[in-house]
Design brief:
The complex is a heterodimer of chains A (304) and B (320).
Chain A: E1 2-10, E2 19-25, E3 29-37, H1 44-62, H2 70-91, E4 100-108, E5 111-117, E6 121-126, E7 129-133, H3 139-146, E8 174-180, E9 186-190, H4 192-195, H5 200-209, H6 212-227, E10 234-242, E11 253-254, E12 264-265, H7 282-303
Chain B: E1 14-15, E2 18-26, E3 30-36, E4 42-48, E5 54-55, E6 64-65, H1 70-89, E7 98-104, E8 107-113, E9 117-119, H2 120-129, H3 138-157, E10 170-173, E11 178-180, H4 219-235, H5 242-247, H6 251-256, H7 264-273, H8 285-293, H9 305-319
Antiparallel strand pairs in B: 1-2, 2-3, 3-4, 4-8, 5-6, 7-8, 9-10, 10-11
Helix pairs in contact in B: 3-4, 3-8, 4-7
């Protein structure tokens, strides 16, 4: 399996960035996820982090090295994240539950599978065409869809969601897949900070015209610029699928050389909402040194 | 009286299989040595030894840290690791590369490529002392910064900012390659802005937001410093520091002296990079690269009579 991935998260004019993102992969399967912790409820950043950690932990457990049923996995892992949030709120005796949106995508075999809850989106661009986009679980998008059936008078605020993780009711999770991928397909996960101020047409055009390493920073900057001083946080994670036959470009991640047991992740598996201790102990120092040396080895291999 | 600086390791000492030849430099964070590896290749070894927190008597190997200074010492160690971690991920000819990282003498060491050459600062000083109307040729400046920006772009792609770009941190090797040095101030700030310690800055090259507690740092902060470096390459001296500029901005005026010596485009790019408002600068290295690479026909505009007059007046008032 080969793919390139590029991710950027930038704080807008908000006090903190409650967006989280990350990806993990085994030799034959990859999981990409993004969550946008919700303001107006406590600890949005914890909610986003917990949702991703739950996804990553379940992926690590189940992808051996492929997921047997990716669609079912996505649904279950997202619901499991929801239960983690409820448990967390109970444990900490919070009056309100932390809440988050989530969008997650699995690349496996030659196919993509994805699921989402809330208004974080997935875009799939092939050539210069938008092939797929998730529909937000917001009243405004619902209204657009329903307007042909039931006319509704006033416009809803796009920010009001009817479902998310951590809400009292059971979250609505939409799953899509399998969708057969072609080499060069680009997938983009983003928080509403991006699509709130940058149109689908521009997102598509950027992904079509530039490599993800140029398109993603460009889009994020556009969103921050358009958002102005009060801009929302903008988080974007994009990947480009490369078929196995593609020549080695040197860029991107190739999982071919990984053993069956290997699991790599950018999602930190720190304990539930615990702030990482500031002081380093000896084990931590040793681990840091080991990690740095592994990174050095990887970079020098890439070079040669 | 200030307390003595910790002593560097004596020449000949072997740490982690590297034999120390001599001390190259010492900063607040530690000491950089020239050393030789087992195959007798030259390397640079950076030792974590914060001068304000650690003590070491001459001849001793292990630094002593007073118990009350331990937490800060460990916190600094974290930054040292961050520098290592950042550099380890980047493999680019324009960014200094890390070869090894190890622990000994109860502190840590980072082994880097030893580069032979001089800093851009040295070149600027030598060139300006020749007292020609140009410090560097325009084509030299363009190709030099094209190289540096390639490296900086990779740094930003790894969600890091350098935050201390200045001619003294740009190294020109004897093979004529430009390399970005000293990531001691680099922080992974694009992803976690919460627990971020504001690094030290160099006047003249530090963007105005570096001076403010609440200033949002970003690629544009490094881009300001790049602009200041280009300025120094044209003028031979660093620009005024940004607090001074906020009070009275003479940048446009001093750049106008360079008109007809350097192309309008290069002067405009410099001014663009050095906008006091972060949002008015190029927002990414990419957009700056595009502008610098635009090798259209260079236009030179002479100063008009009134502009020359203004310059003379400015000189008079500066003298009085």
């Amino acid at each position: 399996m080969r793919f390139s991935v590029y991710q950027v998260s930038r704080r807008g004019g908000r006090e903190k960035n409650e967006d989280r993102m990350g990806y993990c992969y085994t030799r034959d399967s990859g999981l990409f996820a993004l969550a946008d912790g919700m303001g107006g409820h406590p600890e949005g950043e914890v909610a986003a982090q917990l949702a991703l950690q739950t996804l990553a932990a379940m992926f690590q457990r189940d992808a051996k090295p492929t997921l047997r049923e990716p669609m079912r996995f996505l649904h279950e892992a997202i619901i499991a994240g929801h239960h983690q949030l409820l448990r967390y709120a109970t444990q900490k005796a919070l009056i309100d539950t932390p809440r988050t949106t989530v969008v997650a995508c699995v690349l496996q075999g030659n196919s993509a599978y994805w699921a989402h809850c809330g208004d974080s989106r997935l875009y799939l661009v092939r050539g210069d065409k938008l092939i797929a986009r998730t529909r937000d679980h917001s009243y405004s998008e619902l209204q657009e869809t329903m307007s042909h059936v039931v006319p509704m008078p006033e416009r809803f605020n796009r920010n009001v969601l009817f479902t998310c993780l951590g809400s009292p009711g059971k979250p609505v999770v939409d799953t899509v897949g399998p969708l057969l991928l072609q080499s060069g397909d680009r997938l983009l996960l983003c928080s509403d900070g991006l699509w709130g101020t940058v149109s689908d047409a521009i997102i598509t055009e950027q992904l079509a015209r530039n490599g993800i390493a140029d398109a993603v920073p460009e889009l994020v900057e556009m969103a921050l610029r358009n958002g102005g001083a009060k801009s929302d946080n903008v988080t974007v994670l994009a990947m480009e699928w490369e078929s196995a036959e593609d020549h080695d470009t040197g860029a991107g991640v190739s999982t071919q050389s990984l053993g069956e047991e290997v699991f790599a992740s950018t999602i930190q598996a720190s304990m539930l909402g615990e702030a990482p201790a500031d002081e380093l102990d000896d084990a931590e120092i040793e681990r840091s040194i080991r990690e740095i040396n592994e990174a050095i080895k990887r970079s020098s291999q890439k070079k040669s | 009286m200030s307390k003595p600086k910790p002593a560097p390791l004596p020449s000949g000492t072997v740490v982690g299989g590297y034999q120390i030849i001599k001390k190259l430099a010492a900063g607040g964070f530690g000491v950089v040595y020239l050393a030789e590896d087992a195959e007798r290749h030259l390397v640079a070894v950076k030792e974590y030894l914060p001068s304000s927190l650690a003590e070491r008597a001459p001849g001793e190997l292990t630094p002593r840290v007073k118990p009350e200074k331990q937490p800060l010492y460990r916190l600094g160690l974290k930054s040292f690791f961050e520098e290592g971690r950042s550099l380890a991920q980047i493999s680019h000819p324009s960014v200094v590369s890390v070869l090894n990282f190890f622990r000994e003498n109860e502190t840590v060491y980072m082994v880097m490529n030893y580069l032979q050459g001089d800093t851009l600062q040295d070149f600027i000083v030598t060139a300006r002392d020749l007292k020609r109307d140009k410090v560097f040729r325009e084509s030299t400046i363009r190709s030099l910064f094209d190289e540096i920006l390639r490296g900086l772009r990779i740094v930003h792609q790894h969600k890091m900012l350098h935050l201390d770009i200045k001619p003294a941190n740009i190294f020109i090797t004897n093979e004529n390659k430009a390399v970005l040095l000293d990531f001691g101030a680099a922080r992974e700030v694009l992803s976690k802005e919460g627990n971020f310690i504001r690094p030290m800055y160099t006047p003249g090259f530090a963007a105005p937001e570096m001076y403010r507690r609440d200033g949002t740092l970003g690629p544009w902060t490094d881009i300001y410093a790049i602009g200041a470096c280009i300025y120094a390459c044209m003028q031979g001296y660093p620009p005024n520091d940004s607090p001074q500029r906020i009070e009275k901005d003479r940048l446009a005026l001093s750049l106008s002296r360079l008109r007809n010596v350097y192309s309008d485009n290069l002067i405009e790019v410099t001014e663009w990079c050095m906008s006091l408002d972060p949002l008015s600068r190029p927002q990414s290295v990419f957009s700056l690269q595009k502008e610098l690479a635009r090798e259209t026909e260079r236009r030179y505009t002479k100063l008009s009579f009134s502009e020359r007059l203004k310059l003379q007046l400015e000189n008079l008032t500066a003298k009085s």
